Amino acid sequence: MEKRFAGIMVGILLVVLNFGMAVGAVHTRSTYTMITLSNITVLPTNGEETRLPVMVVNAIDWSIVPGRTVHCIFQEFWEGELDSFGVTQSINVGEDGYARIPVPSSSQAKFRYATLWVGGDEASVENKMFWYTHDLSMPAKIVPVDVTAELVLGEVRDYIYQVLNAWGDVIPNVQVRVIRGNGYVTSQQTMITDSFGEVAFEVTAPSGSTGTAELRVQVEPLRFIQTAMMFGWNVGTSPPSPTLPSGSFSASSTNLSSGECATLTLTTSNTTSVSLTPSTGATGSFTSSGGTVTVCPTATTTYTVTLTGSGGQKTYSVTITVGSAPPSTGVATIEASNATSYDGTLPVFDLSIGQTFSATFVAKDSSGNPVSGVSLSVLYPNEVLTTDSSGQVTVTIPASSFEGWDSDKIWVTSDSNVFLEFKIIYQ
Fold first, then answer.
1. Predicted structure pTM score
2. Hey, which of 76, 161, 312, 411 has its CA 20 to 30 A from 110?
3. How far, in Å, CA of 158 to CA of 146, rounded?
4. pLDDT string in tens for the chain (427-residue length)
5. 409 with 417: CB under 8 angstroms?
6. Distance between alpha carbon 404 and the CA centroid of its chain, in Å?
7. Four-residue CA torsion sign, 412, 416, 419, 421
């Protein structure tokens, strides 16, 4: 994959921006604050258009500021992208306080960098990294499912968050921790997502006087995946106003071969009734509390659920693509031939600081025989290799100047269900 930079245009824009930042750092402070899902955004490699939601708020009172403009400079491009995608994006902030910035799509795992700032306030500049990944089990964001920004004095309420991957599928068994606002959380500070990818933190508002606080949670150990919100408490005895129904809707698989079936899973909150379209051929039904339904589509189908509650309606959709089964490569497993140790069943390669390492992997069929001529993809370094006559490929693990560890992955290029995860330790 050949990378090219945006050239003189981006260079000039970045120099001008950096000069403005230097001057602003001496004479001004940022008027606005931009809130994104995380410092690193994980995006899918399915080629679909992706938009990055950026909330713009007043840096003093955290009120939203619709009508402002968020500028975004993408610092690097790949071959062919400059013909169809501008170097600089300028997006207006909507009435909801969000600017939704288009991000170039990708069909391969890789990184991309961008610089964002609010128009007229160069001191608000932020750097952003986008990580495109094939890994369906990788958490990409944590979103509020059932939270309220206004509590009455002394009120106790569960704040529910959900962890999703880059495709919007729920991720269970993920650790989530409260990192700000801990004093108002009366439940455990660290919790594990359930089968719906959800955690519920019990928040108790003080009973003495009115006030506000920030509640921020993050996914562990991926600390760059966070979400934050301001909430307040006030005098009153009435319950909060009715809120829109909310929930999540996902499919156990969004790519089926002809004759296969998938399970649709729905979770709900503040919901009194649910409808599914289309429902023909579905086994089971959803209730106001959610549930599961089995579908066996014969062609590509978009399923939509409509949640109805006292605050209105909310719809969610998922598309299941039906096609012919991919050709079999004959590969059943991928094994590490020269791992230096193991963490449970996970192969580990131990490297010294500044050292590269040639890691060898072998593709085998169900009988344990090596399979030659098969393409294997590696997450990092991002490359595609072909097994030799012994069924082997050699991956050169780059050197590092720092101590620590990274997780990595190798898989059959045409069948991502056959893969091997491994670990690299620098010490």
1. 0.38
2. 161
3. 8
4. 333 333 333 333 333 333 333 333 333 455 766 666 445 566 666 555 567 777 787 777 777 788 889 888 876 666 555 545 666 788 898 887 778 887 777 766 677 778 888 888 877 788 777 777 767 777 877 888 877 777 788 888 888 888 887 677 888 998 998 887 777 877 788 889 998 889 888 888 887 777 777 788 888 876 656 676 667 776 554 445 668 899 999 999 998 888 889 999 999 999 999 999 998 889 999 999 999 999 999 899 999 999 998 888 899 999 999 886 556 678 999 999 999 999 889 999 998 988 999 999 999 998 899 999 999 999 888 899 999 999 999 999 888 888 888 889 999 988 888 999 999 988 8
5. no
6. 23
7. positive
The first and second tokens of residue 189, run together, are 């500070």
